[in-house]
Amino acid sequence: MKKMKKIFVSALTAAMFMVSGCEAPDQEIFDEIPRATGLATTDPTALAAFAAGAYKPLIGTWGAHNSLWSMHEVSSDEMVIAIKGGDWTDGNQWTRMHEHGYLPTEESIGNAWSYCFSAIGTINNTLKSFGGSQLLRAELETLRAMVYLWLIDAYGNVPIITELSTDPTPATKTRAEVYAFIESSVVNSLPLLPKQKTYTTVNWYVAQTILAKLYLNADVYTGTAQWQKAADASKAVIDGGVYSLESDYFANFKTENAGSVENIFVINYDQVNGQGFNLAQMTLHYSSQATFNLAEQPWNGYASLEDFYNSYDNADKRKNSFLAGPQFSSTGVRLKDASFESADPDGENLTFTPFISAIKPKPGNTFGSLRQQGVRVGKFQFQTGATPNLNNDFPIFRYADVLLMRAEALWRLSSGSAEALSLVNQIRSRAGVPALGALTADDLLAERGREMFAEGYRRSDLIRFGKYNNAWWEKPTSVASKNIFPIPQGQILVNTKLVQNPGY
Amino acid sequence: MTKVYLIARRMFTVFLVLTAFLAQGQERTLTGKVTSSDDGSAIPGVNILEKGTTNGTVSDTDGNFTISVGSNAVLVFSFVGYASQEVTVGTQTSLDVKLQSDITSLSEVVVVGYGTQQKKEITSAVSSVSAEQFNKGNVTSPTQFLSGKVAGLSVVRPGGDPNQGFTLRLRGISTFGANSQPLIVIDGIVGASLDNVDPNDVASMDVLKDASAAAIYGARGSSGVILITTKTGKVKKEGYVNVNYNGFVGIDEVANKLTVLSADEFVARGGTDYRTAGAQGTNWFNALTQTGVSHTNNLSVEGGSGTTSYRASVNYRKTEGIVKGVDNDRLNTSLSINNTSLNGKLRLSLGLTYNDRNQNSINLSAFRYAVIYNPTAPIFEGAADNRDGGYFQRDLFDFYNPVALSKQQKFGGERKNLLSNFRVEYDIIEDLTVALNYSINEETGLNGSFWSRRDRVTGFGAQGQARRDTYNNTSKLLELTTKYTKKFGDLNFEGLVGFANQITDSEGFAVQTKQFLYDVNGWDGIDFGSQRQGSGTEASSYKNANTLRSVFGRANLNYKGTYFLSATVRSDSYSGFGRGNKTGYFPAISGGVEVTKLVDLGVVSQLKVRGSYGVSGNLPPAADLALATFAPGGIIDFDGNTLTTSDQYVTLRQTRDANPSLKWETKTEVNVGVDYGLFDGRITGSIEYYTRTNKDLLFGVNLPAGAPNPFDPTEPANVANFAWANIGTIASGGFEFSATYNNVKLGGISWSPSLNFTIYQKAKIESFKVGDLGPGELRLATPGSPGQNANPMIRNKVGETVGNMYGPVFQGLNENGGYVFDSTDPTKWGVIGNGLPNGELGFSNSFSYKNWDLSFVLRGVFGHTLYNSYRGFYENRDAGSRTWNSVTTSKTPFVTSVPEFSSLYIEDASFLRLDNASIGYNLPLKGNSFSNIRFYATGQNLFTITNYTGIDPEVRYSDTDNGDGFQTNLAPGIERRNTYFTTRTYTLGVSLKIK
Q1: Which of B56, B507, B537, B579 is most deeply buried (CB count within 10 A of its CB)?
Q2: Exposed/middle/buried for residue B653 (C-beta within 10 Å: 0-12, 13-18, 19+)
Q3: CB–CB of A367 and B898 under 8 A?
Q4: Per residue in B824-880, pLDDT tens?
């Protein structure tokens, strides 16, 4: 018995030894780069690539369907995604967006939040690993402030996350706190930023434009207007003399727009190296594939509103920002849509009409919008043979916008400002429309609308001019709580310290 | 003292062997007949072996046998379904033996992990299926044998795509995002591919159903385990050779064609009419489909001599689908050699299987377009070399000629699989055996994809596109086990300890180019494509490797054949677990009592009551999920000028956020069961009840965007905003019943019915969150484009069954023909369906009459619903009617508004199906060269009784079309529009046995 016990004990000991000695080795990585190895580099090119990599997430979903751009455009009076037969119903999310009935569960609202905060996470990780250089630090903190500018405008109250944060569930900060964070980030960085022209990276002028945007909307964001500061920041850009208006408005939006002297900061899209600008797919009719010999069939989604289209004078060169009227193939053949609705007045022929029957099916209208209805976004050049990922860089900040911002700030300070009038007329002159003799709020808003169409600023402009809650085509009046979007439901589920915006 | 004993023992053994040898010298011939004690009928094929020797024979079709034996020979007669019988020959020259049917198969041996066990001793839930019980017909995968045969095991392949594998679920869903298929173990090789074994080479299959039985497989056992035992050679007598041939031809036809509008009906409803004068339009079903012809040939040779036995087989299968362009052919060869030496103490075995499989397939959306394409359109239009390759096409949204699509996109591949297994067993002393097992499973594949420049869907925009990819997967397994068996008085003890190391390695690369001038070369001339960067192109490679290191042990106790106890434990250490959780432990215990040994229960001849408790696990779906690494993050062009390339580099991007605490899933399961036999084993069966909890379920979860890492703040901030984590718990249970009545005599007909059924207590979500992590509720699976992209049909909520479908309840039509719903507010919707079944039933029958035999299997699944997506998109008379044809069913209500998801399209999909029926005739043979010739005919999927109006009422356990591959287990019950049509198969075959 004693022997048995001894055998048992030694067997047990042997087993224990075997078990403890049998831990699997650490996981090896073969086809990716372990974090420590990646960060250990001293190669200057690799370090530069890390810095440039911090901009890479911005390419993300900005120019894609169902994210930030879609929210800004469809909630405004310049764009709509109407339901066309069975197409684009998609749970009615786009009709809700246009009617200001958006919910915390909308996909676009969740996508946009993730897009912005992924960029912030990447910037913070880069700062944490390579923040030793003061120049790089200034550049990236300014870039982060730009992303926060998008967040403060869309969501208002958001958490502030920096490279020093440790709380995995960061709490909501008020819009005023976010405002202060953006302002201080940019102001502190300004002295270090380069003053020469850059294109896809942050420089001193980009920083000033961020400030101009922030101050112009200060009244909306904080309740305290900062018109003088907005005018000053805009002036700093103008006085720099680095940027000027392109004589051809559309030069800023063409396929190879990298040479634009007007674009201050762009998202660097490329069909190979920077994929994600899908406007041709998003707006064009299925049959328009033949107009541009596109690689893939478009989706027949986004169109402009008739009233907005009509806000352009016929002489206005910018009216070519729309594709309207009869449509033809690249070889000049009239395009047809064999699936036309019986209500279509010209039958099979494809004609983009400004008039849209309705945003969605209603009693007596089973289809909503006809498939061909609505003028389409033609402001960005669609290259013949384009893939779904366009090459055009997307301007985030443009010199014309800076001129109009200074004009507006000066007008707010004094409605009779001669400089304001002359700045607006500078823009009108390029567009080929007569100069104005005086400026009203409606003039300013309308001019901004025509100039900045499809660049993602219409919603902010409407809010600042107090028009966002008005009724317009297929949109009832809305309440002021709709002036900021809800915090995405998906984010509140994983971070209980986020506070939902009032009214949602 | 012990030493002396051992030497004495050895000498005694040598003496015995010598005696036997000498005894063999005095040979004489013995003849006789084997009959059944039930009805006196002859039993052919009985194995007759002289005990202690390799001398043996088999009874012929009339039950007669002839054997040369020594004077003191003891003959062992054995045959499946009958009790083995030993007869001392004495001086007789003729011998008639009556075998008692032994249905309880008390001596039946069941394969359990790392060994075998007598069925009567088993105290956990294990089901065995032997070759005689296998499903008949054109069976292409071993698991198909088990469909409808094992209570609680579902083997499904919705639609009839011959290139698609079978989906297996044991006792329902067991995980959210990890592996949900049972672990496959072939001849002891854990995780071997089902490709490695041709169905014809399978001897038996055993299913480990509860966590107690599967715990010996530790962190891979929680979805159950299927053990496949292949056929091996036996030395039945000196120089024995047995040749078997089995061959059949089969035809496949479409079993269920959906009804669509005819060309005239389509036009009358407002559809565009493309018919020119005299044209008829096209029946797109007929244009796309064909009658597929298949044939299969299997040849095997087994035999042995002295101490060595072998079996070699070659199997060739060629299968044609019901669509031109879908086919495969497979060659599978296997060889096994067994050798014993040192007086049987050293046993070597070598197994080699090689599999080569070629397959071709098409873009499955061709099935969708065959349903909805305009029936007035012709197949061809214009010159064969025009833009569309001579096919009719129009510039319309989602409108592609299905015949063109099936021809202009091609997907092919060849994979080769080599499995080598080497095993040595040595009896150190009589009771102690050590075994070393080493196996290498190597699979390589080479695939090609091709999109013609005439192909409207993809190829035209790309001007032709071609892809080549190749991969190599290797798994190396080393196992060392020690088994100790000892009898202590009335107590039998069996102990096992083992160590295993398994290294899995997978690597591969892919190249894709586009923009071709010619369609000639396809993927064989990929360098004719001019564009090698950007959309539609690819150059990539990958490699992953991981290590699983395990220690395991088991103890079985059997006291007087009455009380049984079994305990196992396994530790699994996996390189892919997070650094904080390197090793998991999986214990189990089970026990049982054979009541009939304690009390006389009259007609009850067996009543084993048993209970078990066990823990098993599930690995993360990939080995690198715990780590944050840098993946290629796209090209950075420093000067922004794409023309200068010397300044372009690939940046690094964090594509996954780290979870250093990632670990295994854990299943705990309690199983109580009864194995019973009635009327001396004429009726046998089992009853099981189980309840189980799967916790720490693995799932990809969203993290707070951009925030510090929630698992470890020193890790980089969230960028992907996504990590794999152990976040969920589900609870489920079930009741299983099986009964077999052996050899009911109906005049000259013998009938063996076997029934099994399961009632599921469906998996309920108990938690979907850990701390702040986890969605709490997950909505997913939208119907899709057009127009139904943003309305998830399924909501997985805590406290509810996995996969509940939510939507408005259809209440009728308004005066305009539009829908009337109970509510259009998504927050007010209730549950309108669930795709998981409430119960399943299998009813197998075999009849024999003289030389004829007949068998059929009915299988039923009950209580699940399916979303019928063809109805959900294409039955309304709406604006889309001009473009797309409509399905019409008994449930079509003629809605005029645009399609919207509601209860209208959720259908009860309960069904009862005649899975297979087979009739065979055994040719009476007098000669000696053929021992058996059998002709047979089989039909598969002969009829289905169901109210479901879609393509196939079969359960959809997973959904492949919701964009998030890993979420598929949480979206059951959706029949997508790309479903391959169901097929009906008829086969005609012959099998020969030559001795």
Answers
A1: B56
A2: middle
A3: yes
A4: 888 899 999 999 999 999 999 999 998 899 999 999 999 999 999 999 999 988 777
Confidence of residue B14 (pLDDT cuts 50, 70, 90): very low
Domain that includes residue A322, residue range: 279-388
Is A226 domain-assigned? no
Please report the pLDDT score of residue B262 as a whole number: 94
Distance from CA of A57 to the nearest CA of B (A): 9
Which residues of B are less than 8 Å from A258 in CB distance? Answer: 640-641
Provide the greatest CA pair distance for chain A: 113
The answer to the question of residue A314 being in a domain is yes
Q: What is the CA radius of gyration of chain A?
A: 26
Sequence spans of domains, chain B: 2-99, 109-235, 242-626+661-985
Provide the pLDDT for residue B778: 87
ipTM rounded to 2 decimals: 0.87
B886 touches chain A (CB under 8 A): no
The partner residue sitting opposite B633, judged by closest CB among A26, A28, A53, is A53
Q: Report yes or no: B144 and B135 within 8 Å, Cβ to Cβ.
A: yes
| pLDDT tens digits for range B27-51 | 678 888 888 776 677 777 788 888 7
Q: Which helix (H) or strand (E) holds A425?
A: helix A418-431
Residue numbers in B near A268 (CB within 8 A): 637, 640
Chain A CB contacts of B576 below 8 Å: 27
pTM exceeds 0.80 for this model:
yes
Closest CA to B152 of B756, B562, B626: B756
Q: What is the pLDDT of residues B256-313, one digit of tens each?
A: 889 999 999 999 988 889 999 888 899 999 999 999 999 999 999 998 888 899 999 9
- Domain assignment present for residue A199? The answer is no
Q: Is residue A290 part of a domain?
A: yes
Smallest Cα distance from B501 to chain A, Å: 9
**How many domains does chain A divide into?**
1
Residue to substitute from B376, B654, B709, B796, interface A, most A β-carbons within 10 A: B654
Query: What CATH class does B109-235 carry?
Result: mainly beta
Domain B242-626+661-985 superfamily per CATH: TonB-dependent receptor, beta-barrel domain (2.40.170.20)
Give A288's contacts in chain B (Cβ within 8 Å): none
Cβ separation of A91 and B782 shorter than 8 Å?
Answer: yes
Residue B888 token pair = 């019409």
- Average confidence (pLDDT) over A278-302: 94
How is domain B2-99 classified at the CATH fold level? Immunoglobulin-like (2.60.40)
List % helix, strand, coil for chain B (3-state, nearest 5): 10, 50, 40
- B497 touches A at CB < 8 Å: yes
